[in-house]
From TrEMBL:
Record GO terms (molecular function): peptidase activity
InterPro entries: Band7/mec-2_domain, Band_7, Band_7/SPFH_dom_sf, HflK, Membrane_HflK_N
Protein name: Protein HflK
Domain Band: 80-258
Family: Belongs to the band 7/mec-2 family. HflK subfamily.
Protein encoded by which gene: hflK
Length: 373
């Protein structure tokens, strides 16, 4: 063993006489023969008691000494019950682990431990929970606590990388301290769960554009309702939705898809504009043709009805007086035929035969140089 060097367990010399017999308390007692002996513990304890008695007044404990020591201990124990609550804090006093009172800012006193204890909470400080944000901790550089917690499946079955911040304050200090074991972790878990539910009901394009405010409002209300049901004593003051983007691995492809959708929307708008221009024109032209056809129909029908009525009137007159009616019809017909014709009447009743002299009186009435028939 390491102490076996011609000596005892305390490193002293044996019968060889070198270095003496020294124990762990210094120079050990020497026997008559010069050999080493272990120290007497009873003698050491007795010497310690004698020295302590010399220190105490009167050379011993006595009733006065015990009373004085008790008072000192009681005083030291009593002053440990003073505590101070800062202006932005509330003090939560518990007695054997049970909450008994809430103290406002200032200097207060509670029964010293282990009877009572106090925990101070800042109730005006606005706390913040960040999800999906990249932070710089100064050691590992830019990083995220959990990169997968911000990946959420949207209602149209796309994956979105969502980053948001939840701001909250302590609303009820007693509930915050005693109802939830780890309030900060609980707020974070509830925020992630609520955002997943709201984003899961929304389309990706809607969440990126006009639906951002609606999503933030619904998520904040849902977080507050869950924390209220838990009795967490927390009030959510604000939720900021920083981004709703596709994951970084597919963001370039997604931008190409977005550009294609933009072109599709442009072409659709142009087609709708052309449709809105041509269709009214075609409808107007069709209506015009229908109205013209209707007018023509009414005209033809009215003309046919008039001719039929005229024919019936002529037929009635003919049945009443056939000779006169035939003569009248003949005269009217000849009048219509010969109205615009040049006519030469030859009277054959004079008895003249052969060549009849003809004087072209109608041609004489025309202006010189104009031809005619």
């Amino acid at each position: 063993m390491p102490w076996q060097n011609n000596g005892g367990p305390w490193g002293g010399g044996g019968n060889n006489g070198g270095g003496g017999n020294r124990g762990p308390w210094g120079q050990g007692p020497r026997g008559p023969g010069g050999g080493g002996q272990p120290p007497n513990l009873e003698d050491l304890l007795r010497r310690g008691q004698d020295r302590f008695k010399d220190i105490m007044p009167g050379g011993g404990w006595g009733k006065r000494g015990i009373l004085l020591g008790g008072l000192v201990l009681a005083f030291v124990w009593g002053i440990t019950g003073f505590y101070r609550v800062e202006p932005d804090e509330l003090g939560m006093v518990t007695r054997f682990g049970k909450w008994v009172e809430t103290t406002p800012p200032g200097l207060h006193y509670h029964l010293p431990a282990p009877i009572e204890s106090v925990a101070t909470l800042s109730v005006t400080t606005q706390r913040r929970v960040d999800v999906g944000l990249t932070t710089n901790d100064g050691v590992r550089g830019l990083r995220r606590e959990n990169p997968d917690e911000s990946l959420i499946l949207t209602g149209d079955e796309n994956i979105a990388d969502v980053a948001f911040s939840v701001f909250w304050v302590i609303d009820d200090a007693s509930r915050y301290l005693f109802n939830v074991q780890d309030p900060d972790t609980t707020v974070r878990a509830v925020a992630i769960s609520a955002m997943r539910e709201v984003i899961g009901r929304s389309r990706l394009q809607e969440a990126q554009t006009e639906g951002r405010e609606k999503i933030a409002r619904e998520a904040r209300d849902l977080i507050q309702s869950v924390l209220t049901a838990y009795g967490a004593g927390v009030q959510v003051t604000q939720l900021q939705l920083h981004r709703v983007d596709p994951p970084g691995a597919v963001i370039e492809a997604y931008r190409d898809v977005q550009a294609a959708r933009a072109n599709q929307e442009q072409y659709r708008n142009e087609a709708e504009a052309y449709y809105n221009d041509k269709v009214p024109q075609a409808r107007g032209l069709a209506e015009k043709i229908l109205q013209e056809a209707e007018g023509y129909r009414q005209q033809v029908v009215a003309d046919a009805q008039g001719q039929a009525a005229r024919f019936l009137s002529v037929l009635t007159a003919y049945n009443a007086s056939k000779d006169v009616t035939m003569q009248r019809i003949y005269i009217e017909t000849m009048e219509g035929i010969l109205r615009n014709m040049n006519k030469i009447l030859i009277d054959g009743g004079s008895g003249t035969q052969g060549v009849l002299p003809y004087l072209p009186l109608p041609e004489l009435g025309r202006a010189p140089g104009t031809g005619g028939q």
